[in-house]
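Dear colleagues,

As part of the handover before I leave the project, I'm documenting each prediction I ran so the next person doesn't have to rerun anything. This entry is a single chain, and its sequence is reproduced below.
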Amino acid sequence: MNAGTPHVHHLDVRGLEPPEPLERVLDALETLPASDHLCMLIEREPRPLYRILAHNGYGHSTTVLPDYQYEVRIWRRAPDA
């Protein structure tokens, strides 16, 4: 892995009932190193999470996979200069 590539941590929350997926991703973000990414796999789009991420300085991208699962990649945004 080169120095510019973030390490990706994976979190599979498929099959968990709300609010457990949200709680697990927020717990994982508390210990996520600043340069790393978290990749969450879930079976429904976690819309409530997006607002929480934006409010707390995280960016995200969501991909719908061919099996209708959602992959959400989360990273810490750089502070505004």
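Helices lie at 20-30, 47-55. The longest helix spans residues 20-30.

All the best with the project,
I.
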